[in-house]
Structure formats: C-alpha cells, structure tokens
Amino acid sequence: MQRSDRFGSRGDKMIPWGKLLSVLSVYLALAATAWPDSEAPLPRTAVVGVTVIDGTGAPPRADMAVLIQGDRIAAVVPRRDFAPPAGTKIVDGTGKTIIPGFVGMHDHTHVPGNTFTGEVAAGLWIAGGVTTVMTAGSAEPERELALAREIAQGERIGPEILPSAPYISGPGGSPAMAMPADAAAARAFVRDWSKRGVQWFKLYRHTEPAIAAAVIDEAHRQGRRVTGHLCSITFAEAAVMGIDGIEHGLTSATDLVPDKEPRSCRSAVPLLDALDLDSPEVSRLIATLVAQDVTLTSTLAILEGRFADRPQGDARSLAMLTPAARDRLAAHRAQLEADAATTRWTSAVWEKILAFERRFVAAGGTLLTGPDFGRHVVPGFGNQRGFELLVEAGFTAPQAIRIATLNGAEALGLSDRIGRIAPGYEADLVLIDGDPARDARDIRKVETVFVNGQAITPAPLIEAARGRFGPQ
Ligand SMILES: [Zn+2]
C-alpha cells in the first residue's frame, strides 16, 4: 500500500505538487546540460566522504557520496566519482556513517496503563533516527490515526505511522481490549477499523483460535496485516492460520509448554531455564515459522528490563520520563532486587532469548525489531538500544541495521520506497557521527535525520520531550 493511497504523500506536504516535481526533477536531471541548474526546483544536499550501511545487510562502503534531491535519494557513488551538481549543499561525512531511517515494528503510541504518548513519541522517534513506525496494537486508535494524519500533512514532525486497531483479546484477557463475540463480529470489527484507516491488527494473549482465524482472513481481504502477542494460540497454530508476524519471540512461544491445553494461556517463561535450544521442538517451531513466512519481532529493549543484571536505561532515556514514570521505574527496580534470588529471568535465559533469534535468522527467518515501551524504554533511544542488543546477540552491524530497516519495510509492504539507501528511495536517512559497525553504541550519536529529504537536528526534539514521556 502506497502512502499516497492513505494520507497523501509526505512529499506533497513539504513541497506542493511533490509528485509532479519528482517527475520534473528526473526530466531536469536528464536535461541538465540544456537547462541551467539555477532553475532546478529541488534543493540538493550531498553527504560526502561518508560510510554507507545501506540497509540490505551488505558490508559498509567507505568514502561514499550520497546525493539527496528533494525528498529522494538521487545518487550513491564513491566520492572519487562524484561531481556535485551546481548549487548542491555539501555536508562533510568524514568519520561519519549514514544508514536508512529505522523502521520500528513494535512502537506503540501508549505506555502500559493506556496513557497516550504519541505526541511526545513523535519527536523522540525522529531524534533517535526512526522514520517509520508500526504501532503493534493501539490503546487509543482514534488519537493514533489523527496523529498519523497530522504528521503526513506536515503539521507535526514525526515518523510515518502505520496505525493499528484496538488490541483483540478473549476471555480472561484485559477488559480494555476488543473481544469479538464470534467470527462474524471479528470480521465486522476488521472491516470497520480498516475503513477508518488502520493498517494492522494485533491479537493479544487470550484470543480464541476461531476469532484469530477470522481476523486474519478478513484483514487479508481488506489488504491489512496481522501480528500477535500470543499465548492461548501457539506460534505454529497462528502460522498455519496465516498470521503475518509474531511479537517478542521465545518468551511467548507456548508451543514449547509441554502440557499446554488447546486455547489455554500458559506462560512459556518458567520452562526457558531448562529449555534445550537443540531440541527437535525448537527446530520444528523455527522451521514452521520460516515455511509459513511469518516474521518475528525482536523486542530485546523492553525484555532487558526484566533482568536484574542488565542495564536499566541510560541517562538520556531516564531524562525523558515523567515523574510518574520515574516512580514506576523505581518500584520496578526495587521489585527486581527483591526477586533477585528467585527470578526466572537469569542470564542463561537471556542468552537463550538471543540465541533463538540468531537461529531463526540462520534458518532463513525474517527478524524485525521494535522496542516496546514502558519502564526505561522510550521512543528513539529504545530503538537504538534494540540495535545494540541485536549486535550483542551476534548479528553484524549491517545485519542488525537490515533487521531494523529493510526487513521492516518489507514486512510493511513498503520496500519499494523505504528501508534502504539506493537511488530513487525516499531520503529517510540517519547521519551518525561515528561508526556503529566498529562500536554499536555509536548508533546513539545521531547528528542529522533526513525525513523525506528534510534535515532535522535531534537536540531540540529531545529537549522538547524532556520529562514528558510516560504517565502523568
Ligand atoms: Zn507491546
């Protein structure tokens, strides 16, 4: 689905008649010798001498030039072959790295407790280099849809948002979520929310299989996609139903619970300590997901917060929290310490969670990533943390960037225009003052974010969000 089908292209809002100008710019480029550059309507910026990590997983290419023209990437060439067109603004890329904008695939507009955080998140996402998000379940879908439109129309700085319907759950689940009574009601729900503009549906832990099957089938009829934070339904059951994505990975794979009754929700977490990743059950599970082409969304940033021996948020993230969020975090940390002797969240379990993601990818699976929010995990910085943890899991930096960019774009059906650095792609780019392939933490050193070609400096956006993320 093209952005212009949904909200009007973001190019249209930055420059009137953006589409027309894009066509014209190609004509101008072709006719450059006959048509003076001074009449070219589109601003041009070139980042020169930069290392390119292009989103495909290919190794970094050093000493490159990336030419941005209007809202598009116009050229990606070795610096020695680059002759900037007259009037091009030159940005020195020496010692810097450029990557595609992150595609966040578990990026809610709320935090637990249902506080709508979309407006604060919008700026933080951009500041952290996130230019597209899929919200993976909405607590306030009308506000989320409105925010997505505001951004698309240029009234607010933010990423392109692919909105979600209200979460769907079932008996025993949260009463705040939708619980369609039967398959017909589930289909009506999907049609209604599709009409209102949502792109994704999210099945939550207690969804009944018959409801899930109806949601998935009807969503696909409407050109929409479905993901799930599953429990009552196993990954394999959902895969066979045709679900598009599954959230969180190993910790919610109830396939591995030995005596799980159908339709019952039993946590997989207690068995992880004893789980043998080389067991046939794990291999079969991964093989089923790969065969059914189901994506898995890594949410390591939020999961990390459950482990007492893991970092609990950097100073930058903590500075964004509201006082109420800080109080919650303090209570959470006290609980972690109180539970330290008996916790199931051990370092051995952490290693298995990472290894499972590695194995899934090694088997041909498509891994996506998103931070999920709550505790110390905030938009933008949380997405960066997700990248760092994928590298810790054993992926190379280019692989981890692919997971965070092109894989997400493919899962959204948008890989013809975002998710990689190549001519013709939208100029959603992150210029980093460092080398994340050398040190993953350099991903935090965002110097400039290009959003559809518009250069944005993170600092004012971060300042505007200080003390404002989380419940009031
Ligand atoms: Zn979530």
TrEMBL record:
<dbReference type="InterPro" id="IPR011059">
    <property type="entry name" value="Metal-dep_hydrolase_composite"/>
</dbReference>
<dbReference type="Pfam" id="PF01979">
    <property type="entry name" value="Amidohydro_1"/>
</dbReference>
<protein>
    <submittedName>
        <fullName>Amidohydrolase</fullName>
    </submittedName>
</protein>
<dbReference type="InterPro" id="IPR006680">
    <property type="entry name" value="Amidohydro-rel"/>
</dbReference>
<dbReference type="InterPro" id="IPR051781">
    <property type="entry name" value="Metallo-dep_Hydrolase"/>
</dbReference>
<dbReference type="GO" id="GO:0016810">
    <property type="term" value="F:hydrolase activity, acting on carbon-nitrogen (but not peptide) bonds"/>
</dbReference>
<dbReference type="InterPro" id="IPR032466">
    <property type="entry name" value="Metal_Hydrolase"/>
</dbReference>
<keyword id="KW-0378">Hydrolase</keyword>
<feature type="domain" description="Amidohydrolase-related">
    <location>
        <begin position="392"/>
        <end position="455"/>
    </location>
</feature>
